[in-house]
Amino acid sequence: MTTTSTPTTTAVALRGVSRGYGRGATAVRAVDDVDVEFRRGTWTAVMGPSGSGKSTLLHLAAGLERADSGRVLLGDTDITAASDNELTALRRTRIGFVFQSFNLIGSLSAEQNVALPLRLARRRPGRAQVRQALDDVGLGDRARHRPRELSGGQQQRVAIARAMVTAPEVLFADEPTGALDSTAARTVLDLLRAMADRGQSIVMVTHDPAAAARADGVLFLRDGRLVDHLAGASAREVADRLVALER
Amino acid sequence: MLRMSISGLAERWQLFVGATLSVCLGVALVQSSLLLLISAATLDPPAGLSPAERLRFSDSAEASVALLGVTLGFSAFLAVFIISSTFAFTVAQRRRDLALLRLVGGGRRHVRRLLMGEALLLGLIGTVTGVPAGLAVMALQTRLLVGFGFVPGGFTGQWRDWILGASAGVGLGLALAGVLVAARRAARVRPLDALRDPDAGRVMTAGRWLTGLFFAAGAVALIILAPVGGPAGGQALTMNVSLCAAVALSLLAPVLVPGVARLIPAAGVTGMLARANLRDEVRRSAATAAPLIVLIGVVFGQVGASASFAAAGVAEQRRGTAADLVVETTGPGFPAVAGVASFSSETETPLRITTGRGDTADTLIQSALVVEPAAFARAHPGSGYLQALRGNAVAGGPGREGFSRGDTVTAHFAGTDHSLPVVAEVPTTIGGGAALLVPAGLLPADQLAGAPTRTFVTLAPGADPARVTAELSTVGTVTGVDDWLRADAEARTSTSDDIMLIVLGLGGLYALIGVVNAVVIAAAARGREFAAARATGLTRLQVLRAALLESSAVTMIGVFLGALAAAGTYVAVLATTSAVTGTATLDLPWTLMAVLAVVAFVVTGLTSLLTSWSATRVAPVSLLGAWE
């Protein structure tokens, strides 16, 4: 990893990033020469039709996949060519993830799931720190429950607490409300909104206009390219824009 | 980390019970065989025996040591194979868990440490339970050994304190070794795999190809070497062919599974589902079949080879015997009886013989046959020219090893060493026999007193067999040569059966439990998959039927590949018997083999029905709703 002199107002930046799958006739450019900057302290939603490359974009920005070309910067750290160990360390300290399928470890209690990143980073997880993270998502009283004893919305909130316990620079969320009913989804979005208002950088992929409308800005992707951008739009405006894209 | 290990253990208990059981039984089997081997090797002859009796006692003790050595070898082979493959399978089944650990910031080191920690814990539990289980196994093995007369009546396995260390080495060592390779591989899992379908990993790695082909080459080499290895060496090499081939085929199984899957009739939705599952989950199918390949390969190979060699020995004995009556007496000497044209009296005695010299010198108790050369050659056609056998000149017997005509062997008798030039030799035989033919008068009379003597009698033309038999009955037991050959054949077969039961009985049972383990471990992670099938509209019965069909197909693959491994041994058997006796012989115990194959199908079928029944007990919706 090399440190560049890029101004640090950017949480994550992609510079001319491409990523393809397959070979020959079946080759697909999932992300095609994308330049984008996610500003620090803002919540950005990424939208687009199915197959537009939004999940790949998120995975690239988070260092879960490698770009074929271009550069990926986390703050002022170039992670394009980071080793597996360096990326692992990043996941422990500077990046948090939330996914549609909550991906909690079924054998561990909520509390143990939340403490896991800290233990992996060899930091002694303070009981108070873990409790605080659970309290922040409103689940202080569910600490000893196993994931299967929790509702979907509660499981997703545990996942958010797990992602936030290390106070990451950026929280990546891939369809965080995709598997939730509308009430649970609203609770999760309220949580994310409150975090963004406190200065948390969030990059979220979603296909739900209502969810995207809660973000500060919305990026639109089609066929692996950035095609549009909206700021402070309503769910209605976002939905209209998305429909226009799919035409 | 340890807490995570322990809670992980509680969650996936089927996997871990299976792994622990494989360690426990492996430790028990190896420990028991090792203790019995040591006990037999240090067995002291009872006081008050004559020198000849002491020699006979040591001879039979050496035979039981050899038998127990083979038993230990098999136990160790099975323990290594079953423990390491079970542990590797449990790791492969948890790919998604491990990817998840990586996703939340776990390094490769963490994954390795977690898996090694678990292996250590399970190895420890397996060892702690395996040591007492080993004592029970030892009691059982001792009963078999005594019951079949391979060891004297009062024989007991002796406890040795160091065995605790050896058993811990076996249990912990094999568990860790099994996980070591799998853990390195598992640590390379990509965090993204947690978000996708688990088990996206490539099954056939370069290492797996290489190891598989290495063992396959070993099997081929053994097949080539067996016919030139002589009777004893050839038989030993032959027995090892199926071991090598079974390991090779179980490693290469993932390549072969899809081909076999195509043989399943795709009729109906269950057939289609079973077929698709087999092909899609090559790793699971191959891992389930692996212990079965070894069980079938080893058992089919060993019992087939053993029965064939016994049959070849019987045929050889028949060809090499020209007489009308066989008289069994003790000690040398045979009366002159009217109506007897010729007779060959052969007295058998153990002898301490040193062959080779210097560094290659080897001293063993072997059996010597006191013969009258001309009569011996008449009673045993094909023996060749033995007239030079007189004074201290001896001949190489049918069961000799490590020397031939022109060499000099040293024999110890009458209190001192004697150099005996080997001036002649008879053809070696697959059934073995005496190592040395010695002329009458060489060995002291007191050594031969009480030694078993067999006299092959040829009647004079026109003599009345009944009268001669009656007259000879006053000196010993008289049998018509056909009856005698038949009884000899039965005795050989029964001994070879007994040996197989001791060597393979408990090991086979262990391997069968390994098979059950693999089926249970394979089904443990399939709750969601079954639930998805049911949510799609399959009834519970259809899911069970698909699971049963799939397990039958895996069993078929295992039995087929195991039989293929055994076929390697059969090729070597044909080549060896042809080289040694001139007639290629293969005699397979079909009933036993069929019974084993049926048992395999019943056991895997029942296990898979039970596990999938219990996995589908809860309503599918509750499983689909919650991500594990």
From TrEMBL, chain A:
<dbReference type="InterPro" id="IPR017871">
    <property type="entry name" value="ABC_transporter-like_CS"/>
</dbReference>
<dbReference type="Pfam" id="PF00005">
    <property type="entry name" value="ABC_tran"/>
</dbReference>
<dbReference type="GO" id="GO:0022857">
    <property type="term" value="F:transmembrane transporter activity"/>
</dbReference>
<dbReference type="InterPro" id="IPR015854">
    <property type="entry name" value="ABC_transpr_LolD-like"/>
</dbReference>
<protein>
    <submittedName>
        <fullName>ABC transporter ATP-binding protein</fullName>
    </submittedName>
</protein>
<dbReference type="GO" id="GO:0016887">
    <property type="term" value="F:ATP hydrolysis activity"/>
</dbReference>
<dbReference type="InterPro" id="IPR003593">
    <property type="entry name" value="AAA+_ATPase"/>
</dbReference>
<keyword id="KW-0067">ATP-binding</keyword>
<dbReference type="GO" id="GO:0005886">
    <property type="term" value="C:plasma membrane"/>
</dbReference>
<keyword id="KW-0813">Transport</keyword>
<dbReference type="GO" id="GO:0098796">
    <property type="term" value="C:membrane protein complex"/>
</dbReference>
<feature type="domain" description="ABC transporter">
    <location>
        <begin position="12"/>
        <end position="246"/>
    </location>
</feature>
<dbReference type="InterPro" id="IPR003439">
    <property type="entry name" value="ABC_transporter-like_ATP-bd"/>
</dbReference>
<dbReference type="InterPro" id="IPR027417">
    <property type="entry name" value="P-loop_NTPase"/>
</dbReference>
<dbReference type="InterPro" id="IPR017911">
    <property type="entry name" value="MacB-like_ATP-bd"/>
</dbReference>
<dbReference type="GO" id="GO:0005524">
    <property type="term" value="F:ATP binding"/>
</dbReference>
<keyword id="KW-0547">Nucleotide-binding</keyword>
Automatic annotation (TrEMBL), chain B:
<dbReference type="InterPro" id="IPR003838">
    <property type="entry name" value="ABC3_permease_C"/>
</dbReference>
<keyword id="KW-1133">Transmembrane helix</keyword>
<dbReference type="GO" id="GO:0098797">
    <property type="term" value="C:plasma membrane protein complex"/>
</dbReference>
<feature type="transmembrane region" description="Helical">
    <location>
        <begin position="590"/>
        <end position="610"/>
    </location>
</feature>
<feature type="transmembrane region" description="Helical">
    <location>
        <begin position="162"/>
        <end position="183"/>
    </location>
</feature>
<feature type="domain" description="ABC3 transporter permease C-terminal">
    <location>
        <begin position="71"/>
        <end position="189"/>
    </location>
</feature>
<feature type="transmembrane region" description="Helical">
    <location>
        <begin position="546"/>
        <end position="570"/>
    </location>
</feature>
<dbReference type="Pfam" id="PF02687">
    <property type="entry name" value="FtsX"/>
</dbReference>
<comment type="similarity">
    <text>Belongs to the ABC-4 integral membrane protein family. LolC/E subfamily.</text>
</comment>
<protein>
    <submittedName>
        <fullName>ABC transporter permease</fullName>
    </submittedName>
</protein>
<feature type="transmembrane region" description="Helical">
    <location>
        <begin position="21"/>
        <end position="43"/>
    </location>
</feature>
<feature type="transmembrane region" description="Helical">
    <location>
        <begin position="119"/>
        <end position="142"/>
    </location>
</feature>
<feature type="transmembrane region" description="Helical">
    <location>
        <begin position="240"/>
        <end position="264"/>
    </location>
</feature>
<keyword id="KW-1003">Cell membrane</keyword>
<keyword id="KW-0472">Membrane</keyword>
<keyword id="KW-0812">Transmembrane</keyword>
<feature type="transmembrane region" description="Helical">
    <location>
        <begin position="499"/>
        <end position="525"/>
    </location>
</feature>
<feature type="transmembrane region" description="Helical">
    <location>
        <begin position="209"/>
        <end position="228"/>
    </location>
</feature>
<feature type="transmembrane region" description="Helical">
    <location>
        <begin position="63"/>
        <end position="92"/>
    </location>
</feature>
<dbReference type="GO" id="GO:0044874">
    <property type="term" value="P:lipoprotein localization to outer membrane"/>
</dbReference>
<feature type="domain" description="ABC3 transporter permease C-terminal">
    <location>
        <begin position="502"/>
        <end position="618"/>
    </location>
</feature>
<feature type="transmembrane region" description="Helical">
    <location>
        <begin position="285"/>
        <end position="305"/>
    </location>
</feature>
